[in-house]
Amino acid sequence: xxxxxxxxxxxxFFQQQCTPAERExxxxxxxxxxxxxxLQQVLxxxxxxxxxxxxxxxxxxxxxxxxxxxxxxxxxxxxVVRPFRRVWRYVAAAxxxxxxxxxxxxxxxxxxxVKPGVPAPLAVAKVPVPPPGGNKATLTMADGTVITLDSxxxxxxxxxxxxxxxxxxxxxxxxQQLVAPDATPAYNTLxxxxxxxxxxxxxxxxxxxxxxxxxxxxxxxxxxxNREVELSGEGYFEVVAGAAQPFHVKVKGMEVVVLGTGFNxxxxxxxxxxxxxxxxxxxxxxxxxxxLSLIPGLQAxxxxxxxxxxxxxxxxxxxxxxxxxxxxxxxxxxxxIMRQLCRWYDMDVTYAGVSDxxxxxxxxxxxxxxxxFSILELTGKIHFRLNGRHATVYP
Length: 395
Known about the structure:
Jelly Rolls, 3 domains, 19-stranded mixed β-sheet, four-stranded mixed β-sheet, membrane, FecR domain-containing protein, FecR_C, transmembrane
């Protein structure tokens, strides 16, 4: 294959314009390439013309490179330090190779030995690969009516308790207060299934983004003096300031009190802790018999076993990566990673052995399941076999 043709195909890949035939052609060239230096040079040239929509932090990209390009486990484990833009080029080249080799899987079998009992890098059964999640939810009205919110419902308008409820696009429902609220508020519940996400603008203008397997119960219109909602799962809140009406987010075992701010609350039943992470403003977290005040960058965590409430400084970009269209794993155990991925891809998982490794990776949230798992395999520490909506993990 000529260098011009290779450059054309790699550029189209980064621009997400490759046809299936072009992806296979590029996969064949990568699998058969005997010159690693030439491969890296061509991929870097293609990457140099493309500006990614999402940037890795320097620390995460360096740790990914250490895992991807490390040849000997006995070598000194020092994070790779490179200029930021150059780091991204290497990571992109490695990710591209992994994704393309997935589509050319039969070529890999001819060129790479397979460990006994472990599938070849990314083994995929001949069934549809789970797509990424999308904007989907159900809205349960106060009278028990259930409305499925999908793309066919755009423009839907419902009036309830002097509030207009509008489905304005594929991932947003808006509450607009028309008159002063009644004494007794009616409650709605927005429920997001596995493989879903959704956003709601409440009657006071506060915005809530809900992650997969989450629900929010809230009044159609807030009564005077108090704003209170109940969350299960995970949500990111941007609360409209109102000193006369504190905003309360209640989850099992914990409560967040807000005047006006941006914060994330994660309260999945299967996780070991309930967390509240502050991005802007100030909040108070109540739980375990304690009251903790947070400033931006702090996370409060309530241990479900000990009922102990603590706070620590965290990387907030990692906390709200799900809202911004990506997954960021910075030293995260594989089981925690799989819980997040399975919620988004609506999958189940089994483990053929348990790995105590911690993983560093950044994955576009709208990659399909096979692409997501192939990125994790680039660490060289984990393998997957996909069969429809079931994944088997091999250390």
